[in-house]
Amino acid sequence: MINNLSALSGIVSIILGIVYIIQTLALPRASIGSPMSPLYFPLGLGVSMVVLGIILVVQEALKGGLNGKARQKSDFRLNYTGKLIIFTCIISIIYAILYERAGFIISTIFFLEAILTAINGKDQWKINTIVAVCFSVGIYILFSKILGIILPITPIINI
């Protein structure tokens, strides 16, 4: 039984990296140029995740931390950073779900507002809202109008 959170994180990283590599290899090949070109970056990410996971597990094994002998088993409590990471993961999943349905602008405003509120607090809601709206609209204009990169249209305001 693994009692060490770092070793467990390494094992999860290895598993996710392998799944990521498998999913990357299922992506369609490029029809123009090198067929593997679109796969290089995602493959690099997957391989990096696996390698770093292996390094983390090996480091913990060398410390003797896999079975909990090197460290006392302690209560697992989430600190502020841990809660922020979990919150960011949940908000990112909601953002991905809303992205196509609500459009780029609305979903990005929601995402940024939630993250900025988590970091800056509820007292800074005016600044958080101004930043979220200006960033979302500014990036939308930059990508869709200036660079010609199509982003999901926001149905309510039709831009």
Automatic annotation (TrEMBL):
Residues 9-152 form the DUF1468 domain. Pfam families: TctB. The chain crosses the membrane at residues 7-27, 39-58, 78-98, 104-121, 133-157. It comes from the Bacteria. The keyword Membrane applies. Keywords: Membrane, Transmembrane, Transmembrane helix. This is Tripartite tricarboxylate transporter TctB family protein. It comes from Clostridium liquoris.
